[in-house]
Amino acid sequence: MSEHADVAATRLAYDTVASDYAALLRDELASKPLDRAMLSAFAEEVLAAGGGAVADLGCGPGRVTAQLVELGLDAFGIDLSPGMIDVARSSHPGLRFEVGSMAALPLGGDELAGAVAWYSVIHTPPERQGELFAEFARVLRPGGLLLLAFQVGDDVVHLTKAYGHDIALDAYRQSPARIRMLLAEAGLVETVWLERAPRAPEKVPQAYVLAALPE
């Protein structure tokens, strides 16, 4: 089956910006206590349920993967962009990173205790996002947890420049009601929802949702 044009565009854009993206966002979590709190809560819940493998889906340069490992999780990263994976491996040589698509994860069914998609579903058109959530549910074991982060809205932003580079990439802001619907259709049960106001340079509210695959 041929690759969707948006997938190719996403790979090219992130290959292009990989090094500068990593440098600019390296310490981003340090200034975002609510973001860290959601990652910490996710980690505690996974560990309380017995631990196990956790995938950072769309891991980029690996900063969230590294944070999850610091929180005690057996975490690894998967990203569509070979350029991002090269940067992640260089920045975090002791951690595992693989090139792969979120739409067809290189993982077996029921393999994960948890998965994180930290602003990584935002480049998939809304009509195909349900397929991503179904794939996330496939690789989670019963009782496994999914943590999502995304920008709130109902519009699409076409990016032509980012991190000092010319690119062509669409980013879809998400309706919380629609995300709830898609999670439920994938068989995932929402357990925690957090929405916060934007902080410069953010322009729209940010949302985080923790969902579980029923046992």
TrEMBL record:
GO terms for biological process: methylation. Pfam families: Methyltransf_25. One of its GO terms (molecular function) is methyltransferase activity. It comes from Leifsonia poae. This is Methyltransferase. It comes from the Bacteria. PANTHER family: 23S RRNA (GUANINE(745)-N(1))-METHYLTRANSFERASE, METHYLTRANSFERASE. Keywords: Methyltransferase, Transferase. Transmembrane segments: none annotated. Residues 54-144 form the Methyltransferase domain. Gene3D superfamilies: Vaccinia Virus protein VP39. InterPro entries: Methyltransf_25, Methyltransf_Superfamily, SAM-dependent_MTases_sf. CDD domains: AdoMet_MTases (cd02440).
